[in-house]
Design a protein that fits this description.
Distance between the termini of chain B: 34 Å
Radius of gyration of chain B: 21 Å
Oligomer: heterodimer
Distance between the termini of chain A: 23 Å
Order of helices and strands of chain B: EEEHEEEHEHHHHEHEHEEHHEE
Shape of chain B: globular
Largest sheet of chain B: 8 strands, mixed
Largest sheet of chain A: none
Strand content of chain A: under 5%
Strand content of chain B: 15-25%
Largest interface: A-B, 22 and 30 residues
Strand order of the largest sheet of chain B: 7-8-9-3-10-11-13-12
Order of helices and strands of chain A: HHHHHHHHHHHH
Helix content of chain B: 25-40%
Chain lengths: 280, 323
């Protein structure tokens, strides 16, 4: 798998790639370690009066209208957002790879049927499809949210993988493997899939940014992560009522979204150039 | 000598998009005996590579080998095999080396991995044993410092080294026949000779039969036992190498020789063959070389058969017809 490591290394050596990776790692580290150092994001220590406090040493990001620590909630919401994003992207990349592989390898009628299906699915706006699916169900558990986001995000990936497989199928080493008596499984697992990993990894990285935005949007509309569990989108929605008097309640989760998505995209962009220098 | 491969009336066809099929390989017959090298010589587009792919039933769809063709590998009727039985002859009975060593190795696996893959595809051996055999194969094809090269990735090797690795891979399942499709075309001239020497040494030490596919008459001399010249999907002349070089008989073969520069003898202008190989979906009627042939005559309007011009020497030309 040296090619993948080479590409990751090349992406790391670019300024934007390294900046993106460092920030993403920092966000991930904060999500994992945060709960050990920060107050309980659900605790409402001062619910009766004078709850909203501006940023101070005790509460670096201030407190919200229920006197909850905003920093703790941003970090804890980040944990939820990242978990949802990673799982959903993992699911959609797997599905996309599988469908693309089948379509590209078997070709013919199978390919045509699958790709027309994908064409159709791509014609439906993902956000509205999700709104529809989420609106009919009450109180969606996180696992179902992941499932829904994951199963609606693989269409473009499957096309990408199909294209790669079509290209790789004609590579000399695939012919050589067939001439050596490699069976179908071996050709797919050893010769096609590993060589399609680069573009797949790029799609996954860029997909993380997309899904974080999508999940924030859904939570903002009250259809994503359900309160009282903190989420970036949900926090911004709650902040609307106090936006003028206590802007920090909305600004910090907004910044968190922007910075995380930006760094995922920066790293994904650097990775894309590293995987395929022609597009740079 | 025992015959290890017999090909008879091999026809490979593709659909032309208008409901008909055309035949890039059209009635090729030859045989290969144990321990000998047969060179299949011809220009690009004459069907020689497709012939070699057909031997392993690797003709890319929608192409297919037509009914009536015979490919017999020892006692095995290759054209009747399916599935697992077919997979077992690939690599195991016939090993194959492709033209371009730069693209014939998988970039994401080490050289050792790829040789071991061939071993493990056909023999039930442990990983360690497969790696051990890979190491011995690298030694056999003359790669210096094989221990460390085993863990090298293809991009870390030169073209010549990669072609040696390709040969090692082709040998990994110990085939009785090695098909080398333009094994030296992509290499520097100095490296070409080394690769051909490796092939020659292996043929001798392993008693393999070699089918050497090339467009280069220069590498045929002194290395092949027999030569078959292909033109427009057919074999047009076949003879032992010495005989063919001494008495090239078919006008096409003579044209090939006239277009190769000679080091000895008086300086002459090279005489190229006029025109180019016709496309496979429009083979000329009658003798297929007729439109380019300086010696074409009225009889060339009819398709000639392979006719004897000497002991073990045949050509597809009416000039050999005594009547």
């Amino acid at each position: 798998m040296t090619a993948i490591w080479d590409s990751l290394g090349r992406a790391w050596r670019t300024t934007r790639g390294r900046a993106g990776a460092v920030v993403l790692l920092a966000v991930a580290a904060a999500s994992v370690l945060g709960p050990f150092a920060l107050p309980d994001p659900l605790a409402q220590p001062n619910i009766l009066g004078g709850a909203i406090l501006p940023p101070s040493l005790g509460h670096p990001f201030g407190t919200d209208e229920l006197s909850r620590d905003v920093l703790a909630r941003v970090v804890s919401g980040g944990r939820v957002s990242l978990t949802v994003a990673l799982l959903a992207v993992g699911l959609s990349v797997t599905l996309g790879a599988l469908v693309g592989l089948v379509a590209g390898y078997f070709g013919g009628a199978v390919d045509a049927a699958l790709m027309r299906l994908v064409d159709g699915a791509l014609a439906v706006p993902r956000l509205f499809l999700l709104l529809l699916l989420l609106a009919v169900s009450e109180r969606v558990p996180l696992a179902v949210l992941v499932l829904l986001i994951g199963t609606t995000g693989w269409f473009a990936t499957s096309r990408l993988v199909r294209g790669e497989i079509l290209r790789l199928r004609e590579e000399s080493y695939v012919w050589a493997a067939a001439a050596l008596g490699a069976n179908r499984r071996r050709i797919i697992l050893r010769h096609l899939l590993p060589n399609a990993m680069g573009p797949l990894l790029v799609a996954a990285t860029l997909g993380v940014g997309d899904v974080i935005l999508l999940e924030a949007g859904l939570s903002f509309l009250g259809l994503g992560v359900q309160p009282p569990a903190p989420s970036w989108g949900g926090m911004i929605m709650d902040a609307r009522q106090v936006l003028v008097t206590a802007p920090w309640v909305g600004i910090f989760p907004g910044l968190a979204i922007t910075i995380t998505v930006l760094s995922a995209n920066l790293f994904g962009d650097a990775l894309r150039d590293a995987v395929d220098p022609r597009g740079a | 000598m025992t015959r290890v491969l017999q090909v008879e009336n091999l026809r490979v066809s593709f659909p032309d998009g208008a409901g008909h099929r055309f035949h890039p390989v059209d009635g090729v017959s030859f045989e290969l005996r144990k321990g000998e090298t047969l060179a299949l010589v011809g220009e690009s587009g004459c069907g020689k590579s497709l012939t070699s792919l057909a031997l392993l039933r690797l003709v890319p769809p929608p192409g297919r080998v037509d009914a009536g063709s015979v490919i017999r590998l020892g006692d095995t009727d290759v054209l009747s095999l399916t599935g697992e039985a077919l997979r077992r002859i690939r690599g195991r009975r016939i090993g194959m080396i492709f033209q371009d060593p730069m693209t014939s190795l998988n970039p994401v696996f080490t050289v050792g991995d790829q040789i071991a893959e061939g071993v493990r595809a056909h023999f039930k051996v442990s990983r360690a044993e497969a790696r051990d055999r890979a190491l011995r194969l690298l030694q056999e094809v003359g790669i210096p410092d094989p221990d460390s090269r085993l863990d090298a990735y293809p991009h870390q090797l030169s073209g010549g080294m990669r072609q040696r690795v390709m040969i090692a891979i082709a040998l990994s399942a110990e085939p009785e026949i090695l098909v080398a499709d333009e094994p030296t075309t992509a290499l520097d001239v100095t490296v070409q000779a080394q690769i051909l020497e490796v092939l020659e040494a292996l043929r001798r030490s392993r008693g393999m039969a070699v089918l050497l596919i090339t467009h280069d008459l220069g590498i045929v001399a002194g290395r092949a036992d027999r030569v078959a010249v292909m033109y427009a999907g057919q074999i047009v002349e076949e003879a032992p190498t010495g005989e063919l070089f001494a008495h090239p008989s078919h006008p096409y073969t003579q044209g090939l020789f006239a277009s190769v520069p000679r080091i000895s003898g008086p300086v002459q202008r090279l005489t190229p063959i006029g025109g180019s190989v016709p496309p496979a979906n429009a083979w000329p009627s009658g003798c297929r070389f007729r439109p380019r042939c300086p010696k074409a005559f009225d009889k060339s309007e009819l398709p000639p058969e392979l006719l004897a011009v000497g002991a073990d020497h045949r050509m597809r030309c009416w000039l050999a017809d005594p009547t």
